[in-house]
Amino acid sequence: MTDTPEATRQEAIEKSLALDEARLLIGDLINLQTQSGTAIERYSVKLLGMCKGRSVLVTTPMIDGKYLLMREGQGFILRAFSGKSAYAFTTQILKSVNTPYPYLHLAYPREVKSLVVRRGARADVRVICAIIACDDAPLQAAGTIVNLSVGGALMLAKQALGKKGQQLTIKFKVMLNGIEALLELKTVIRAINVDQSGESDTPYQLGIQFVDVSAEDSIPLLAYVYQQLLEESLGT
Fold first, then answer.
1. d(Cα 72, Cα 194) in Å, to the nearest integer?
2. Of 48, 92, 107, 189, which is least packed with CB atoms within 10 Å of its CB?
């Protein structure tokens, strides 16, 4: 976990392409993020179809089983994940349709940002985590993950949590398309640095590697890293 920020970002390859070049499929879950207002809101919707140069059709967002009232002209950042790539573009509602079922016509983008994420690419985050075990011995401690990849993380802590080579089991939550996912991951401590200045509340810096990640945890972990990297690339 000692790469420079510049080297880290080289692991995420960004390019622009046309929407019909993106590998999006009918029924894919996509994310709509509002562009205005003080609070950022995200809605999970499904892709229904696309008419090149005209519109993108998606389901109308729902909260608590009820369709939201969407106004024409409302702007969004649309994000989607497919394979090893993440896609994003700005759009707005052209038409809100209620029959035969609620759906939205969104403006067709001139270009789409694509981000291909390699295993080592790390996103700047601030995620509180619980450390529940060290070498399978129960432990109760807290840490803060400040950068994250699909293979590991940099975690800050108030106290020493273990020694280099020891295993830590950590838990943390991520939010994806409005849905909260709880991850429980086994990690190995690969590096430890201590801030000796006395100015930090979390002087212990641990570079941890994820090991034996289950399929159940790897999917939301990958999607969350993609989402954060894409937001960084768009400056949102």
1. 53
2. 92
Looking at residue 3, its pLDDT comes to 45
Q: Is 16 exposed, middle or buried (0-12, 13-18, 19+ CB in 10 A)?
A: exposed
Do 172 and 130 form a contact (C-beta atoms < 8 A)? yes
pTM for the structure as a whole: 0.62
Q: Which CATH superfamily is domain 123-234 in?
A: predicted glycosyltransferase like domains (2.40.10.220)
Q: Are strands 179-194 and 204-211 parallel, antiparallel or unpaired?
A: antiparallel
Domain boundaries, given as residue ranges, for the chain: 19-110, 123-234
Compute φ and ψ for 65, nearest 5 degrees. 80, 5
E-only strand ranges, 20-74: 29-34, 42-51, 55-59, 62-63, 66-67
Structural domain 19-110, CATH architecture = Roll (2.30)
DSSP code, position 120: T
pLDDT higher than 60, residue 236: no
Other C-beta atoms lying within 10 Å of the C-beta of residue 88 = 22
Q: How far apart are CA 90 and CA 112, in angstroms?
A: 8
> Region 139-160: what's the mean pLDDT?
93
Instruction: Identify which has the larger pLDDT, 216 or 154.
Output: 154
Burial label, 183 (beta-carbon count in 10 A; 0-12, 13-18, 19+): buried
Task: Give residue 107's region: left, alpha or beta (phi > 0; psi -120 to 50).
Answer: beta
What pLDDT band is residue 86 in, cutting at 50, 70 and 90? confident
